[in-house]
C-alpha cells in the first residue's frame, strides 16, 4: 500500500457498471494459454483477489471446478454475480465482498490465486504471505496485466486514435493535477516492483508468458466515456455535482477528435507472471 494513502470504500464507487463496456478485454487466448502452461484438468479452484466485476475470473472459469472472486466494492461483487448469471456459470462461481487483507476468510485452499491489475491497492506483504498459505501443494500465483509496450502505429486503421492527452487534461481541469484515489490522492502513483514482494513472501520464479494482442478494435464515444468512468482516478462520484458538465465536455472532446464518433485502437497483449509456492516465507519482524 502507498505510504501516506489509506484505502477507503469509495475507491471504485460507481465504476462497476462501466467496466464491461469501457475496459478493453484481455488478449484472446488467455484461458487457453494458462490451460496449456498449467496443465489444468478442470478440477481445481481459483481465487481471484480484487476480482472487480469478474473480468478475469469469468474468463478462466472453464479451467476450474470452482472460481471464487473477492473484492471490497459491493457494486463490483453485484456486477460479477450478474455477469456470471448471463454467462451461465453462476453454479461454478462465488463472489465474496471482503478486502484482501481479510483473507483467508474461511475460503479454503486453492490451486491458483490470481491478481489482475489489483495487487497495488493492497497491503502487499501481508496479502502475498496470506495467499501463499492458501495454496494447495504445487499451487501457483498468477500476476496478470496488460502488456506495457508501445502499440503499433494506428496509421493503417480506419478511425482516429482516442484523444488520450485531451481526455487526461479534461480530467485534471475538473479534479486537479494530482491523481485522485477514493477520498485521498496519489501524487506518486501506485507502487511497482511486485517481484520483490512475491519473493519476500516465499514464492519462486516467475515464469513469464505473453499472450499476443494487436487486433484492431473499433470504439465509439459511449465506449470511451465508459472507459473514463471505470477508472479509480476518474470515478463518477469524484465529480460530484459537476458530473453532467464533465460528461458533456468529454463528449465534445471526443466529437472534435472524430466527427464520426468512431475510434480505432489495437487490442493490448496480456502478460502473465506465474509464481510458484516455493519455501515458507520468513516471518516479518513486528515494528
The second-level CATH architecture is 3-Layer(aba) Sandwich
Using the alpha-carbon principal axes, give the shape: globular
How many structural domains does the protein architecture include? 1
Largest sheet: number of strands, sense, barrel closure: 7 strands, mixed
Strand order of the largest sheet: 3-2-1-4-5-11-8
CATH topology (fold) name: Rossmann fold
CATH superfamily: Vaccinia Virus protein VP39
Tell me the radius of gyration: 19 Å
Percent range of helical residues:
25-40%
Strand content: 15-25%
| SSE ordering | HHEHEHEEHEHEEHEEHHEE
Mean pLDDT: 91
* Tally of DSSP β-strands: 11
Straight-line distance between termini: 16 Å
Structural class: alpha/beta
Count of alpha and pi helical runs: 9
- Name of the level-1 CATH class: Alpha Beta
The low-confidence runs, each spanning 5 or more residues with pLDDT under 50, are 281-287
Question: Topology of this protein?
Answer:
Elements (H helix, E strand, L loop, with lengths): L15 H7 L7 H9 L6 E5 L5 H5 L6 E6 L2 H14 L5 E5 L12 E7 L7 H11 E12 L17 H12 L4 E2 L2 E2 L8 H7 L3 E8 L4 E5 H9 L13 H15 L4 E5 L3 E7 L11
Parallel strand pairs: 1-2, 1-4, 2-3, 4-5
Antiparallel strand pairs: 5-11, 6-7, 8-11, 9-10
Amino acid at each position: 500500500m502507498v505510504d501516506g494513502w489509506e484505502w477507503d470504500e469509495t475507491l471504485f464507487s460507481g465504476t462497476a457498471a462501466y467496466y464491461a463496456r469501457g475496459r478493453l478485454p484481455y488478449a484472446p487466448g488467455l484461458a487457453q494459454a494458462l490451460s496449456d502452461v498449467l496443465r489444468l484438468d478442470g478440477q481445481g479452484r481459483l481465487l481471484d483477489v480484487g476480482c472487480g466485476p469478474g473480468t478475469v475470473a469469468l474468463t478462466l472459469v472453464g479451467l476450474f471446478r470452482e472460481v471464487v472472486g473477492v473484492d471490497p466494492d459491493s457494486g463490483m461483487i453485484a456486477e460479477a454475480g450478474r455477469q456470471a448469471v448471463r454467462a451461465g456459470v453462476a453454479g461454478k462461481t462465488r463472489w465474496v465482498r471482503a478486502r484482501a487483507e481479510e483473507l483467508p476468510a474461511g475460503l479454503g485452499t486453492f490451486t491458483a490465486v490470481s491478481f489482475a491489475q489489483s495487487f497495488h491497492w493492497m497491503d502487499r506483504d501481508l496479502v502475498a504471505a496470506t495467499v501463499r498459505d492458501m495454496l494447495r501443494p504445487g499451487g501457483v500465483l498468477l500476476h496478470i496485466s496488460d502488456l506495457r509496450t508501445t502499440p503499433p502505429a494506428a496509421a493503417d486503421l480506419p478511425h482516429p486514435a482516442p484523444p488520450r492527452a485531451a481526455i487526461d487534461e479534461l480530467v485534471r481541469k475538473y479534479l486537479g493535477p494530482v491523481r485522485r484515489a477514493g477520498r485521498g490522492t496519489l501524487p506518486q502513483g501506485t507502487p511497482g516492483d511486485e517481484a520483490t514482494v512475491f519473493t519476500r513472501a516465499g514464492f519462486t520464479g516467475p515464469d513469464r508468458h505473453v499472450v499476443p494482442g494487436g487486433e484492431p478494435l473499433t470504439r465509439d464515444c459511449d465506449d470511451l466515456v465508459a472507459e473514463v468512468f471505470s477508472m479509480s482516478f476518474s470515478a463518477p462520484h469524484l465529480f460530484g455535482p459537476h458530473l453532467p458538465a464533465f460528461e458533456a465536455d468529454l463528449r465534445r472532446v471526443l466529437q472534435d477528435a472524430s466527427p464520426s464518433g468512431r475510434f480505432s485502437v489495437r487490442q493490448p497483449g496480456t502478460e502473465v507472471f506465474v509464481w510458484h509456492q516455493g519455501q515458507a516465507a520468513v516471518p516479518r519482524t513486528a515494528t
